[in-house]
Design brief:
This protein is α/β, with parallel strands linked by helices. Helices cover about 35% and strands about 10% of the residues. The strands form 4 sheets. The chain has an 8-stranded parallel β-barrel with strand order 7-10-11-12-13-14-15-16. The protein has a 6-stranded mixed beta sheet with strand order 2-1-3-5-4-6, covered by helices on one side. Strands 8-9 form a two-stranded antiparallel sheet. The structure holds 4-O-methyl-beta-D-glucopyranuronic acid (GCW). 4-O-methyl-beta-D-glucopyranuronic acid binds near residues 184 and 264. 4-O-methyl-beta-D-glucopyranuronic acid binds near residues 347 and 375.
Length: about 650
């Protein structure tokens, strides 16, 4: 199958800068990483200028110079980029820093930034910048919307040119770790830690190492039973402990630079320590001890909740689960455990408050998990550029009592005793030829990487960079695609579940509306709508969830008058006539936003149509087809939501629009 180069197209940029920069490159360095940096320069020079760049063995007067230096401020992965009199110098403490510098240079050329007298220093602000793939060994992808896996085919691990291009895409935006298999580890994927897969994993590790990417694997917590034939996976059982020590020794003999493992335990049917009456720290630490001798890391997910809940029972609140299980264990985890916490307390909805564990863990390594796969945000059919949402999350204050108290401070390790370690995203790639199905969904892939590297970049800047590298250089293209991206998250929010209530999606598939689809089920995601009102009471009179935040957030959420509109129904059960801060009633707001959402999508289609003759036809039509599906989806949401709430409340739309 053929495929495209996403944002590494290196479109021709003839005439914009002195091409003498790209005639000669000089470096004393040798090795795989440097070879990759040079290969990238060669490829880009060829495509952008139709010329060849030559590696020379003396410092040229004009050209590119890659050199190692020793500067504390550049840390392990940072670089400096400087232009003076025709020479571009890239300096770093490590080869990987040089590779990142080369990608920065090429990005700047692709975006036609000025080169003369350029002087910049870039150091990633988060340590771990990671992707999680939910790819299965049979080639399918859980919540995958871009075709099948390119990591697995016929139960084998595939390492080919596409894998290399994948590594290039990651390195180009600074992603430095990846998990290639689904956290739901089933079938043969359990055997990744056996001889069966070591040979192909070695190839993969070698390739990823040469792009500064640490390979991690998802681990089956019950492997000691499934592979080892043990009767239990009790983390305190000596035979279990011994089995894992022996197993990790074997794994690291074969794969000494493996990053470690990601574990989903006691969640949605996956095995874990709870079965044996042990807690999450017992489970994580048992594995962590086994890989500590090899500097391995256990990333342990906090997505632990009871998915067998009785919908009649209003005392259980899924939103509380991660907090209730993990808060009291703060400090109980070993140094080489990192907790991975979903951004919100439910599950990647279009809007949720941030998970209250952020700012509360003061003695445990942790990272934030977001999802670019758009499971609940349009599945890469509907356009939903998530970077503005991630920015809002990163900018949120936790009020942890320190001067630097935002989530981005936390993830940078600037507060909470430096236990914030980075960010991970559930990935949105597959083997579709453009990587992400909808071409515009690649903006989330690119954007996540850039934001993971630098929380200060704006959504607009990221969009602009991505567009310049992806589409033909035309003012109108840049302007229209930017506007489309930047309006898309709000639009999606408008036509789907209102005011922070979440879900209301088709069960299992999670695309399209089904308002009561999860209402009488075991999954813990309810809206509690009746004739009088809607929303979940998470105040002290309800589940008490609002109190899990530090003040003033706890009070703000607790009080129905100060709770922000966009989260009102997440925290409160209110009547349809309740007046929002925006002065509208809840029911009128629901009607208005849903009609508006559909109008927005119609407008988006018109905007896109305006680009027909400016874009390559294949890309244009591929995206256009997605927009048409999005419009159907938006209409369906609008009509079902409006009809449902009209029928429940018997309150008319003030504007008399068509409701069924
Ligand atoms: O959102 C839910 C998804 C599951 C997923 C789970 C998780 C991998 O519907 O498909 O399982 O989250 O995050 O573990």
């Amino acid at each position: 199958m053929s495929w495209e180069q996403a944002w590494l197209k290196y479109q021709a940029v003839k005439g914009y800068l002195d091409e003498a920069y790209f005639k000669e490159v000089y470096t004393l360095e040798e090795g795989k990483i440097i070879e990759n940096a040079l290969a990238e320069l060669r490829l880009a020079t060829n495509k952008m200028f139709g010329a060849a760049i030559e590696r020379v063995n003396h410092l040229p007067t004009k050209g590119i110079h890659l050199s190692l230096v020793s500067k504390e401020c550049l840390a392990k992965e940072g670089f400096q980029l400087e232009e003076k009199n025709g020479l571009i110098a890239i300096m770093a403490n490590t080869q990987i820093g040089l590779l990142y510098g080369v990608y920065e240079l090429l990005r700047r050329v692709a975006c036609k930034n000025k080169m003369a007298l350029l002087s910049l220093t870039r150091v990633p602000d988060k340590e771990l910048r990671m992707l999680n793939h939910w790819d299965n060994i049979d080639g399918s992808i859980e919540r995958g919307y871009s075709g099948d896996s390119f990591f697995f085919e016929n139960k084998q691990i595939v390492v080919n040119e596409r894998t290399r291009d994948y590594a290039r895409l990651l390195a180009s935006v600074g992603i430095n770790a990846t998990v290639i298999n689904n956290v739901n580890v089933k079938q043969e994927a359990t055997e990744f830690i056996t001889n069966t897969y070591f040979e192909s994993l070695k190839k993969l590790v070698e390739l990823f190492d040469s792009y500064g990417i640490k390979l991690f694997l998802s681990l089956n917590y019950a492997a000691c039973m499934e592979l080892g034939g043990l009767k239990s996976a009790d983390p305190l059982d000596e035979t279990v402990i011994a089995w894992w020590h022996e197993r990790m020794k074997l794994v690291y003999q074969e794969l000494p630079t493996l990053g470690g493992f990601l574990v989903k335990a006691d969640s949605e049917g996956r095995p874990g320590p709870f079965t044996y009456g042990r807690n999450q720290a017992d489970g994580a630490n048992m594995l962590a001890k086994a890989i500590a001798p090899y500097n391995g890391i256990i990333i342990w997910r906090c997505f632990v909740y009871n998915c067998q809940q009785d919908w009649r029972d209003r005392t259980i609140d899924r939103a509380r689960a991660a907090y209730d299980y993990f808060y009291e264990l703060d400090g109980a985890f070993l140094d080489n455990v990192i907790l991975q916490i979903k951004n919100g307390p439910l599950d990647f909805q279009v809007r949720e408050p941030f998970m209250p564990l952020f700012g509360k863990l003061k003695k445990t390594n942790h990272i934030m998990e977001v999802q670019i796969a758009q499971e609940y945000t349009g599945q890469q059919i509907d356009l939903c550029y998530l970077i503005p949402w991630f920015k809002e999350l990163l900018d949120s204050r936790t009020y942890c009592g320190e001067e630097n108290d935002t989530i981005k401070d936390l993830l940078k390790g600037k507060c909470c005793n430096h236990f914030g370690r980075g960010i991970a995203a559930v990935a949105n790639t597959g083997n579709s030829e453009n990587w992400t199905g909808n071409d515009l969904a690649a903006a989330n892939f690119y954007g996540f990487g850039r934001l993971a590297w630098d929380s200060e970049l704006t959504s607009e800047e990221i969009a602009k960079e991505w567009i310049c590298q992806t589409f033909p250089d035309e003012e109108e293209v840049l302007d229209t695609v930017s506007r489309l991206l930047l309006m898309s998250w709000n639009t999606y929010e408008k036509y789907t579940a209102p005011l922070g209530i979440g879900f209301m999606v088709t069960p299992h598939y999670h695309y399209g509306p089904n308002i009561d689809g999860y209402e009488y089920s075991r999954w813990g995601t309810y809206h509690r709508a009746d004739h009088f009102g809607i929303g979940v009471d998470r105040t002290k009179k309800g589940t008490g969830y609002a109190s899990l935040y530090y003040p003033p957030l706890s009070q703000m959420y607790e009080n129905v008058d100060t709770c922000p509109d966009e989260l009102l129904l997440f925290f409160h059960h209110v009547s349809y006539n309740h007046i929002l801060q925006n002065k509208n009633t809840v029911i009128q707001h629901i009607y208005d936003t849903h009609f508006e959402g559909v109008k927005d999508v119609e407008r988006m289609i018109q905007m896109w149509k305006g680009l027909e003759h400016k874009l390559p036809s294949k890309e244009f039509h591929r995206v256009e087809a997605c927009f048409h599906k999005q419009l159907d989806n938006a209409k369906e949401w609008c009509d079902q939501i409006n009809s449902y709430f009209y029928r429940k409340s018997a309150i008319n739309d003030k504007r008399g629009r068509k409701i069924y």
